[in-house]
Amino acid sequence: MGTSFSDHSFSDRLTRGLVAEGISVLQVNVGYLCNLACRHCHVGAGPLRTEIMGRAVMERCIELLKAYPVPTVDITGGSPEMHPLFRWFLEECAALKRRTLVRTNGVILLDPDYKPFLDLYAALGIEVVVSLPHMDPHVTERQRGDGVFPGLIEVLKRLNAAGYGQAGSGLVLNLVHNPGGAYLPGPQESLEAHYRQVLLARYDVAFNHLFCIANMPIGRYLDYLRRSGNYDEYMASLARAFNPAALARVMCKTTLSVAWDGRLYDCDFNQMLGLPANHGAPDHIAAFDMDRLAHRTIVTGNHCYGCTAGAGSSCQGQTA
Predict the structure, then answer these.
(1) In this structure, are strands 255-258 and 264-265 parallel, antiparallel, or unpaired?
(2) d(CA 47, CA 77)
(3) pLDDT of 156-175, one tens digit each?
(4) Which residue from 111, 154, 204, 241 lies 20 to 30 Å from 277 (Cα-Cα)?
(5) Cα separations in angstroms, 238 against 26, 67, 104, 270
(6) CA 151 to CA 172: how far, in whole Å?
(7) Angle at the Cα of 255 (from 254 to 260), degrees rounded to 5?
(8) Residues in contact with 53: Cβ distance below 8 Å, sequence separation at least 6, in sequence order
(9) Element (H, E) at 236
(10) Quick one: which H or E segment has residue 257?
(11) What are 251-272's pLDDT values in tens digits?
């Protein structure tokens, strides 16, 4: 099978602790409830999940954003639209005039109960991020479920009709690419050009940017790696592709992740692994301390190879 992953500890790559350099992104995971159960989902989200963020935690997030000039609010899930207080929370965030992103699975916007969010996003100037793992419908549907691809194309068309991805509109539509197997994504620049060409030619769809994100060995994707016997080789391949330039720009240096229960994490991936902020930094939003959190030592593990291999990976695409 090749080199054993046990020969490559991520901590061995660090000459000193990985330290945050401020908080420019507050990523808020409002819960794990979702209308889909995608195979590559590191959150393990789905229709049967019951974890959703309480109003008190949401209010605390708004209080902190009012108190501190964090420039970007990144809202994720699950499917954020399914949270009963999501409209209120989104309007509160938008009123702060920060860059506000919503990560949506897209197809939920075809459901009559959630369709109004598309117009709300446009009215509030929300940056929309839609998962479109691959241009091949079969590859996308292997990850996200049968029949999802045509729904995604329909949603992208509706977003375009609302002004998203259109020059001069100010409405930003970003897509997310994930590899369909146990390998790293290709170069983001060339993949973005390919996506742009194919979507325009085949479907008359436009978008702004493509985020290429490596599949993290967490959640359902970890289960897939183990079932398929690919775990050791995938982790070893990530370790072999370790890139110091990617390490210098990992997203945890400037991001703080808030879980549905108010616990604080260095990133969404640590959240899924139950690794809260540590090394003396507050680990709950009720004890938020900007000075300590902005310069905290980050909790790392071997999963961090997913963000530091090759061209790097983050919630906003490749980093190196």
Answers:
(1) antiparallel
(2) 12
(3) 999 999 999 999 999 999 99
(4) 241
(5) 27, 39, 27, 17
(6) 20
(7) 170
(8) 28, 29, 30, 31, 83, 85, 260, 261, 262
(9) helix 231-240
(10) strand 255-258
(11) 999 999 999 999 999 999 999 9
Token duo for residue 284: 């709950």
Q: Which residue has the tokens 């994490």?
A: 265
Provide CB contacts within 8 A for 20, sequence distance 6+.
252, 253, 254, 266, 293, 294, 295, 296, 297, 298
- In what order do the strands lie in the sheet containing 72-76? 209-212, 173-177, 127-131, 99-104, 72-76, 25-29, 255-258, 264-265
Hey, CA dihedral for 164, 166, 171, 175, is it positive or negative? positive
Provide the phi-psi class of 236: left if phi over 0, else alpha when psi is between -120 and 50, else beta. alpha
Beta bridge partners of 29: 76
Q: 312 preceded by cis ω (within 30°)?
A: no
**At residue 4, does pLDDT exceed 90?**
no
Cα separation, 76 vs 234, in Å, equals: 26
The DSSP element (H or E) to which 142 belongs, if any, is: helix 137-144
Give the DSSP letter of residue 84. T
Which of 316, 306, 315 minimizes the C-alpha distance to 243?
306
pTM, entire model: 0.94
In this prediction, residue 1 carries a pLDDT of 38
Determine the Cα angle at 203 with ends 202 and 209, to 5°: 100
Based on its alpha-carbon atoms, the radius of gyration of the chain, rounded to whole angstroms, reads 19
Question: Which amino acid belongs to residue 101?
Answer: L
What is the rounded distance in angstroms from the CA atom of residue 10 to the CA atom of residue 89? 37
Amino acid making up residue 97: K
**3-state DSSP assignment of residue 62:** helix
**pLDDT tens digits for 20-57?**
999 999 999 999 999 999 888 888 899 999 999 999 99
